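Budget justification aside, the reviewers requested a transparent look at the raw inputs and outputs of the sequence design task funded under Objective 1. We therefore reproduce one unedited record. The lines immediately below are the structure tokens for a 145-residue chain.
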């Protein structure tokens, strides 16, 4: 039996994230652990050389992420059978997720993986791999069969 008390699950609203959420909620229910869902959106960058100092580019992206997170949170609550916390963060996904897990005192981080390989992985990188390398705690990578 594990000693996990706080579990963080990274979600990007994809099917691999759905698998990660299911696994994280199952483990949280089994262990009586707290569950935190974390989503990171990248901060939109202005196109060209526009000066937009007075315009908040993060507002619409944050609002959209909050809206998308709602059904994911409801599903996690249903699977876990208890309340779930959420965090919407802006920035680089691997960095923000690992930092949120550290700040929340999580001892397990659950992530999904898209399973890209070859050129796609070289070009796009692997958020799950970066999380595994940078996390301060155990990491469970949920992968569809």
């Amino acid at each position: 039996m594990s000693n996990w008390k706080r579990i963080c699950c990274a979600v990007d609203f994809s099917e691999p994230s759905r698998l990660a959420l299911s696994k994280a909620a199952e483990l949280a229910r089994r262990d009586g652990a707290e569950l935190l869902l974390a989503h990171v959106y990248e901060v939109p960058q202005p196109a060209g050389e526009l000066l937009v100092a007075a315009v908040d580019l993060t507002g619409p992206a944050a609002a959209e992420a909050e809206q998308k997170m709602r059904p994911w949170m409801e599903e996690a609550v249903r699977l876990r059978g208890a309340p779930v916390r959420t965090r919407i963060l802006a920035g680089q996904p691997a960095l923000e997720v690992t930092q949120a897990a550290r700040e929340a005192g999580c001892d397990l981080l659950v992530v999904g993986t898209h399973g890209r390989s070859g050129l796609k992985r070289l070009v796009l990188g692997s958020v799950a791999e970066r999380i595994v390398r940078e996390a301060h705690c155990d990491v469970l990578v949920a992968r569809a069969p």
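The radius of gyration is 16 Å. The chain has a mean pLDDT of 86. Computational costs for records of this kind are itemized in the attached budget.
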